[in-house]
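Changelog-adjacent note: as of this version, every example in the card shows the full chain rather than a window. The one below runs 955 residues end to end.
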Amino acid sequence: MTPDTFQARATLPCKAGEHLYFDLNALVNAGVMSKEKLARLPFSIKVLLESALRNFDGFIVSEQDVRGLANWNAAAPNEVEIPFLLGRVVLQDFTGVPCVVDLAAMRDAMKALGGDPKSINPLVPCDLVIDHSVQVDEFGSKVALTINAKKEFERNRERYEFLKWGQQSLSNFSVVPPATGIVHQVNLEYLAKGVLTREDEQTGKPVAFPDSLVGTDSHTTMINGLGVVGWGVGGIEAEAVMLGQPVYMLTPKVVGFKLTGKLPEGSTATDLVLTVTQMLRAHGVVEKFVEFYGPGLDAMSIPDRATIANMAPEYGATMGLFPVDQVTLDFLRFTGRSEELVDLVEKYYKAQGMFRTPASPEPEFTERLELDLSTVQPSLAGPRRPQDRVLLSEMKPRWRKELVDTFGKSCGSEIVRHDSWAGEGGQSATKRVGAVNVPRSGPAESKEKGCSVVEMDGRSFTLHHGDVVIAAITSCTNTSNPDVMIAAGLVARKARALGLTRKPWVKTSLAPGSKVVTAYFDKGGLSEDLDALGFHTVGYGCTTCIGNSGPLPTPIEEGVKRNDLVVASVLSGNRNFEGRINPYIKANYLASPPLVVAYAIAGTVDIDVANEPLAVGKDGKPVFLKDIWPTHAEVQAVKAQCMSPEQYRSQYAKVFDGNPEWNAVPISRSDLYEWNDRSTYIQQPPYFEGMSDTPPALRPIEGARCLAFLGDSVTTDHISPAGDIAVDSPAGKYLQDQGVPVSMFNSYGSRRGNDRVMTRGTFGNIRIKNRLAAGDDGKIKEGWWTRDFSQKGGQPRTGLVCPIYDAAMRYRAEDTPLVVLAGKDYGMGSSRDWAAKGTNLLGVRAVISESFERIHRSNLVGMGVLPLNFMPGQTALSLGLDGSETFDIELPEKIEPRQVIRIVATRTLGEHKGKRVEFETRCRVDTPVEAEYFRHGGILHFVLRRILNEAGQPA
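Full-length structure tokens:
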């Protein structure tokens, strides 16, 4: 069978010269599908179909793969596995460093197995953007950027030296230095091409095909706003793609989301995305594609589309695609892409029938939703999940309900607050003002009243429940969107003119997604306005949204801890899971950048900002949100005046070598990396120790113990936390034993290249609730605790409550396998490979849950951990399990996708000791290829053996 069985090769003349491409219309000519069918395929399915057609070889991609996608059944897609060969990979440094660590370890393993270590090398282009390492240590000053950048290099130099080794020693691998921008914005503004090209082996001519990628960050989906198919995967799956493996998936369902109308005055793209997230999460789109269509797209900018696409992990979809259209071409031109590239994109997508116009036929979808944009209202989301949208007009009563119901605090009567904080709005230190949010000298401190008196910088004020202690303009969701960023600047400008500023207890920060943002802020004069309210640029990176908020000022932190205050953060991010933003902030709300500024002025979420004054102006009059909120016309006027294509060309002209400190990092080149046993950042992982060239036979899991018994909505933040490393945690104690001072702990994310830190940090979130750690009163001890039933645990009858890591090591010493019990949506959130790696290294052989989020399920399989689902209607609790049982899992010699796996749980405590609970589970190894990955002990072992057996030749 020839590679061009369907006679699909065609020629595309364009400004950049003649290109080859694989014409989808050839499938119509070959009688594989009708013209009408092709016209009404969702754009996302057309991209998958083109990849299958172009890569058809009868081996990796079969004729049935091509025919199956060509005849995609919208109502009920065939549940068959399809291969998708992607064009490139993007990495951020938190997940990128362990990717390179794994590649280095695979080179060592390849040499140990007698192969060529240089055969372990990326086969597709890989770009790593260092954007997650900067923390907000310094804020509220013009030197914040300089100080934070200096500390970033001090803390991470060892990691950067390692990445320099990767840059020099691996092919197809480039690194975008620190202080450039957030990976997704750099991808949107520079890395993405829309159309990729490769040299044709037969003719030497360039072959054009749709840009596609996977990324080691769940918000890789932001690029869907540009019409590029891509999504987030764990690092282990990304490494397989780097090494030439396809992504294997079940034929996807596609949910069509129709947009009509336009946003009303006062609403932003952030409000829109919070609305969309709530709708799609409620509808249920896990493991589905979402594709946006309808007349609402005609005037929707690429940044607005990217804002919606970015949040696909929050609404649970694999991706949220906006098709390529004229708006896409205009954005490519405006962001400095060459005219030759724009011409290629236009001609290619039109030739393939993949270019959306208002006259395009409506695609066939599996399911449909619709939203009239004119109905979108200003909103926030929180205090713990992105899908929990709160209308701005309902924020105050909702907050008070959350305070009581969620956080277990009393909510007193309306507080009249007035402080000795003089100087705001011309208020004297003694004048009483009735608004709840103006400076206050609260009541005498008491735990019952929920307040703490704080002395800071020579001033005194009172912290209350609901006070905003972090207000951060951060994360890729919004910092890539000029409309909401300029709106934030205009709110600051108007507030500054009225004499307003942030409250003294608010830690403010601005982390632009790229230096282009700074360029247009400076040109528009908005940088000075933001600085005046404390929103100085603190760095170019993910910062607060990823957990790099840095420490709270010591007096604030002590005041919060002293009376267990429930304080809040307001951030323009996409993640607000508990324990993520800052360990001492329990309530976290997502909001648009202009609302972040407004809440910094108000200083509390216990306010109706729609109707109550934010503060008092310098003329002594109350200032309301409407007084400082810009109109759409004002935003567009500033945008037109301060933005130009030259800003993009200038900022990205030296994207790979524009950072002098990065350039000064020593260059090293070698086939094998020289590991340093004393390093606390980079260590050789143990995954390949004792590995043979053939996989061992599968065996049943016998006598397993439960390491953690968890509830619903356990996130990868709970399993593998970002942010601070607690001093008294197993990881913190390890670092101290290695002589690392607390001031240099850095973060879990920065230490993902060291399995010794990360294994100790697995299940280490301070807010995780493991039912096994419940006391006699039934109250669960939050944090990294479990009950140890090992023989060395000290109390085999009742179990010893101890750190999870310690228990796991005792179980390992006794050769006892482990399981995790969980509820719904296990593993939701970021695409953290360490949530699976750490699970594996703790000795967990299986996770039994009610349901999984897509990426984490895939990561578990990729690390050789068996994901199992309770049967519908069953849960761990309904089966009467309490976690003290032993578990026997009847694994067959050959795992079949989604087969039924029988489990026997035997009680070990109480009057029913010895009683057996037998139940069935659904194996969530979903495809034949995943079954092979699991049989080999993980995807990296599979790839390593494949490369070894094929003498280093790509599959």
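Structural remarks: The mean pLDDT is 91.
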